[in-house]
Amino acid sequence: MAKIQKNSILGGIRGSIGDMVIRQMPDGSVRVSAKSLKKRKFNQAQRDNQDRFKMAQAYARVAKNDPVYLELAQETGRSVYHLALSDGLIPPVIHAIERTDGRVRVMASDNVMVARIWVRILDGEENPLDEGHAAQPDPLHDPERWEYASHAEGTVEATAWDLTGNRTTQFLVNARAGTVLIRP
Question: Over the stretch 65-92, which tens digit does the pLDDT of each residue have?
Fold first, then answer.
């Protein structure tokens, strides 16, 4: 690989010529290298990750006018595109599910925000006994806490969605008052 600095002939050239690849580096230098001849093969997990990244990129391009991302970009100094891209790549996390006094409390977070949480109470055969949207009792001071009123006994299934549609589901099996699931 050749490294060329301050060369007026190759300074404006980028791309490939024949079997040579010409790249301009961040420090201003130009690097010339041989084109790779072997074709890379990706496994299924790598292809799935590439598809996920493409979907996140497509979402980030259309989310550039979303007020949530615009406000967060002003607060953090990051670009709207990169905030939406990272939101598309990172699903929400459910930290805890708790049963107390006829309520199901779900603690969940996301790198931007959790958009909604759906709670289902299931019997032993996984038939729904009760289900509905959880609400945030105090979104300004405790944005991670969501609650759903239910006296039904059984397995609690909580699903959290972010703005991009990513979702995470956690279960609290045979939930009775006072039981808690905590994820590390």
Answer: 899 999 999 999 999 999 999 999 999 9
Structure tokens belonging to residue 15: 């791309």
b or e along 149-164 (b: 16 or more beta carbons within 10 Å of the residue's beta carbon)?
ebebebbbbbbbbbbb
Q: How far apart are CA 170 and CA 97, in angstroms?
A: 8
Q: Quote the pLDDT of residue 177.
A: 59
Q: What would the pLDDT profile of 3-17 be if each residue is shown by its tens digit? A: 555 555 655 667 777
Instruction: Identify the DSSP state of 6.
Output: S
Asked whether 139 and 75 are in contact (CB, 8 A), the reply is no
Task: Name the pTM for this structure.
Answer: 0.74
Instruction: Single out the residue of 164, 154, 158 nearest to residue 117, CA to CA.
Output: 158
DSSP bridge partners of 169: 159
Q: Which of 159, 160, 156, 157 is nearest to 176 (CA)?
A: 156
Q: Give the tokens for residue 41.
A: 């093969």
Same domain (yes/no): 74, 118: no
Given pLDDT bands bounded at 50, 70 and 90, which one contains residue 19? confident
In a domain, 1, yes or no: no
Domain that holds residue 30: 9-34
Q: What is the DSSP letter of 63?
A: G
Residues 148 and 75 in one domain: no
- Residue 72 in contact with residue 86, Cβ under 8 Å? no
Of 148, 139, 135, nearest to 103 by C-alpha is 148
